[in-house]
Design a protein that fits this description.
Elements (H helix, E strand, L loop, with lengths): L32 H5 L2 H16 L5 H22 L2 H24 L12 H20 L3 H26 L2 H26 L1 H9 L11 H32 L3 E5 L6 E5 L4
Antiparallel strand pairs: 1-2
Helix pairs in contact: 2-3, 2-9, 3-4, 3-9, 4-5, 4-6, 6-7, 6-9, 7-9
Bound molecules: zinc ion (2 copies).
EC number: 3.5.1.-
Main location: membrane
Family: Belongs to the alkaline ceramidase family.
Length: 273
């Protein structure tokens, strides 16, 4: 929402979108407080995920998936904190790049571990061209609908790839990860829409409740948290599915279990019945 009575540290918003949360209401330095802080869910889990990749000795390539989620989280933090167009790009461009990496990793799941950095050259070339084309066009034609559609197509492609992998392997843990990640993600997307459509109603609701409860009513903030955690689970899915295919062939005595916290996977001895 445009500033009610006060401008903040970052001046007049230059981004092509301004969200429902009132600007500079809680701080002179942060345009949208809840929409900014809620990005911690897109910043802290991927940092933890990268540490886990190293600790658990997973393939290094999964660090890229987490790293791009972290970049989106930092970009989104910067965007909502400043509402500057440059920071909006810092959020929106990595969303498309990161999901492209995710799609690529999902197509690699069934292949044996390789030392070659790029094993599917045509797909790599296609996705890179898609990202370059999208980036150039979006810089010239900064229509939010174009970004939303490009990102949406990639997310949809990642869902289809996951469904395919579940059908082939029928892994119980992957199925659980898929159900959690997609339902959390899609519910977050539903709230993203509600925040846009019912902004006026939400604002009148906010005027009647204590300020302390304001963050709970910021549905865009909920979207950040759900998209962050949903995508984090999607990376866990990719890791698990990769090892499903590789370790079966090796008849390994260990398999990967989901940690009860929901924030990681751990190697556990297989129970043979
Ligand atoms: Zn946002
Ligand atoms: Zn699995």
């Amino acid at each position: 929402m445009p500033p009610l009575e006060n401008d903040g540290y970052w001046g007049k918003p230059t981004s092509t979108i301004d969200w429902c949360e009132n600007n500079y209401e809680f701080s002179y330095y942060i345009a949208e407080m809840t929409n900014t802080v809620s990005n911690l869910m897109m910043i802290l889990p991927p940092i933890w995920g990268m540490i886990e990749v190293l600790n658990q000795k997973f393939e290094r390539k999964f660090i890229y998936c987490y790293f791009l989620l972290l970049v989106v989280g930092l970009g989104s933090w910067a965007f909502h904190m400043t509402l500057l167009y440059e920071m909006q790009l810092f959020d929106e461009l990595p969303m498309v790049w990161g999901t492209s990496v995710m799609v690529y990793c999902l197509t690699e799941v069934r292949k044996p571990q390789t030392t070659r950095p790029i094993s599917n050259v045509p797909l790599f070339f296609f996705l890179t061209s898609f990202c370059v084309f999208f980036t150039i066009l979006y810089l010239y034609w900064p229509q939010p609908v174009f970004q939303h559609t490009s990102y949406g197509i990639l997310v949809f492609a990642s869902f289809l790839l996951e469904i395919h992998l579940i059908r082939v392997k029928n892994c119980r843990i992957c199925r659980r990860l898929f159900i959690y990640s997609t339902s959390i993600y899609l519910f977050g997307f539903f709230l993203w829409n509600m925040d846009k459509v019912f902004c006026r109603n939400l604002n009148s609701l906010r005027s009647g409740i204590p300020k302390l409860l304001d963050p709970i009513t910021q549905l865009h903030g909920w979207w950040h948290m759900m998209a962050g955690y949903g995508t984090y689970l999607q990376v866990l899915f990719t890791i698990h599915a990769s090892y499903d295919f590789r370790y079966e062939k090796l008849n390994a005595p260990v398999n990967l279990q989901l940690r009860p916290s929901g924030f990681g996977l751990k190697w556990a001895k297989k129970v043979f019945s």
